[in-house]
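User: I'm putting together notes for a lab meeting next week and I want to include a structural view of one of the chains we've been expressing. I don't have a solved structure, so I'd like a prediction I can at least talk through. The sequence is below, exactly as it appears in our construct file.
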Amino acid sequence: MRVNKFKGLIAKAIALCCLLAAVLLMFSCRCAQSPGLGGGDPGAGGGGPGLGPNPGNPGNAPPPTIEIGSNGNWWVNGEDTGIHAGPSDPEIEIGGNGNWWINGEDTGIPAVRPGIRVYFDANGGSPATYYITIPAVPYTIALPGGDSFSRAGYVLAGWSRSAVHANAPVYETDFLAEGPTILFAKWVSESALYETVTFSSSWHTGGTVPSPIRAFHGYAVTIPYAAPTRTGFVFVGWHRNENSGTATYQPGDVITSSIATGANFYAVWRPYRWQTVTAGANHALGIAVDGSLWAWGGNANGRLGDGTTTTRFDPVPIMPGTKWVYVSAWNHSAAIRDDGTLWTWGLNQFGQLGNGAANTAVNNIPVQVGGDSWHSVAAGIRYTMGIRADGSLWAWGNNQFGQLGDGTTTSSFVPVRVGLDSDWRSVTANNNTTQETMISIFGKSGTLV
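Assistant: Thanks for the context. Below is the predicted structure for the 449-residue chain, given as structure tokens.
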């Protein structure tokens, strides 16, 4: 009997020792996990965690450090939450109030720590300075763009830690801030990125033209569909040469070549209303309704006056930007501008241009002759005649048959006066190669001389 009682006592003692050992083991484990800070008033509770992250928090705050303190509470980032640690792992989230919440209870400990600033220096732009406050570090921020900062003549290319160092990294869209930081704007000149494609109505003033297009270097550009307008003319296309008579580009064309130094496109026109037209030897000249001079046809010796010897099947402008009142042509051309000056070009074998020389060279650009104040002019074969504003008659060129009317058969390379009368009204020069001595001259009385 006594043996059985003794065995029972031993069994109870062993069980008590096991229980005590278990309690001591648990207590020692908790002490090992304690941050060494005891006590502390439990944090105030109340309120739910809300729906989703705090609106003021971007949701990328660093994860907290969670421990069980010596008081048996959960500790977050070294602070006592006042929430008793349970047997299961905690569920932690950021509540709608910006605090850390554990297992649905507010810890009262902010997840967002304000006061860390990232400064933006406009580096010559505006606004001069600007900063944002970030909640924690490390923290990724979205960088402001050209809608927030500007600088005349420049494009915002990004942000850098250096204001001047050319090789410093440039951040374009976002930046990982690891503490208070100053970022400097990096600007690139617009001329280094863009080229302006312009459209001009050439030397014509008035009408409408498309607005300029700003394009990146090397990017394709579509020529606007809107065409310029001009009274008395038909628009036929665009060309890179201001005085070209040929249209290379049409509205809607895509320019795929690199626009390295910008591009200027000039309108190409065709007159459809004319003041006067004259036919020469294999070419023709006409004055359009706006006073501009045009030429087309054969171009031997430069008789069109467009600076080439190329045959033109469409009218090309001559001395664009000028206005003309009188024109005549044969194997050379002569015309009078609205300021009364006389201009000649084309074949000059017999001095018919009146420029003081006789040659077979190409004379494909109009040259002024005989001073100013001319009223009318007539180009004949190998010679020319004209009437000044004072009514005096002049002639120059070949005089083999006395066709100059100066009483000699001596050719003249400059204008010579014919007679002393000053009442000449009109003049015409014969272009018949077999009867080149036939010249008709009319005075104010209308009598044939």
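A couple of points you could mention at the meeting. Residues 22-60, 433-442, 444-449 have pLDDT under 50 and may be disordered. The chain is about 10% helix and 40% strand.

User: Perfect, that's what I needed.
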